[in-house]
Amino acid sequence: MPNPFHLAMPVHDLTAARRFYGELLGCSEGRSSERWVDFNFFGHQFVCHLNPELGEGGAGLHRNPVDGHGVPVPHFGVVLEMDQWEALAERLRAQGVKFEIEPYVRFEGEPGEQATMFFLDPSGNALEFKAFRDIEGQLFAR
């Protein structure tokens, strides 16, 4: 097993986080308390820590121009196989998720060509899910 990352992020509401990460994204829940909850985020340990002062929508994001889009920063996510990415994009659309950047192929025909999409969790944390036709050959292509 490759080294899984550990990421802890603030959320304004653990119930909303459970719905979003558990039900919508399909991440199984691990340990929890009244102030935090662990999720298996595609094989990685992701922890939502309650910060009720955060408020719905979070603290706001910076946007960086990439390929003609304003990429929200900070953001996190995972690299999926193309069929997984396509299925997730379809599921998110069916659930009415509002995309910050709609699913599309970025850097088409260039090294690092990738499918990508951005959306926010209920606390305003930005997520990016991406996919490559050849992850090993394209992930760090120059």
From TrEMBL:
<feature type="domain" description="VOC">
    <location>
        <begin position="3"/>
        <end position="132"/>
    </location>
</feature>
<dbReference type="InterPro" id="IPR037523">
    <property type="entry name" value="VOC_core"/>
</dbReference>
<protein>
    <recommendedName>
        <fullName>VOC domain-containing protein</fullName>
    </recommendedName>
</protein>
<dbReference type="Pfam" id="PF00903">
    <property type="entry name" value="Glyoxalase"/>
</dbReference>
<dbReference type="InterPro" id="IPR029068">
    <property type="entry name" value="Glyas_Bleomycin-R_OHBP_Dase"/>
</dbReference>
<dbReference type="InterPro" id="IPR004360">
    <property type="entry name" value="Glyas_Fos-R_dOase_dom"/>
</dbReference>
